[in-house]
Amino acid sequence: MTAPARSVHFAALVAKQPDNELFRFSLAQALLAEDRGADALEHLEACARKKADWMMPRIMLGKTLLALGRRAEAKPWLADALQLAIDQDHQDPEAELRGLLAGL
């Protein structure tokens, strides 16, 4: 499935089940693959807000906000993701997040 076809596919699934965080996460990934970060933000944020212990949407949300030049908005998401990485013993994401936050 091509990248645009993936986003269309997942957008249809999200339209049918807007509370399904896995569909929203997949749609966000497809949108990011199409360089449509601004469109992915709402879906990443919905995922992060729905599951307090889900690190990946927070990392992706923070990185996307950074890419869009929205550093102040990115920082709390990245800090939250860092705490989850520490709590969940994810060493590689922890190191990456510490580096990102140090640059802010």
UniProtKB/TrEMBL annotation:
GO molecular function terms attached to this record: identical protein binding
SUPFAM superfamilies assigned to the protein according to its UniProt record, in alphabetical order: TPR-like (SSF48452)
Domain of life the protein comes from: Bacteria
InterPro entries: TPR-4 (IPR011717), TPR-like_helical_dom_sf (IPR011990)
Pfam families reported in the protein's UniProt record: TPR_4
Protein known as: Tetratricopeptide repeat protein
Naturally occurring in which organism (per UniProt): Rariglobus hedericola
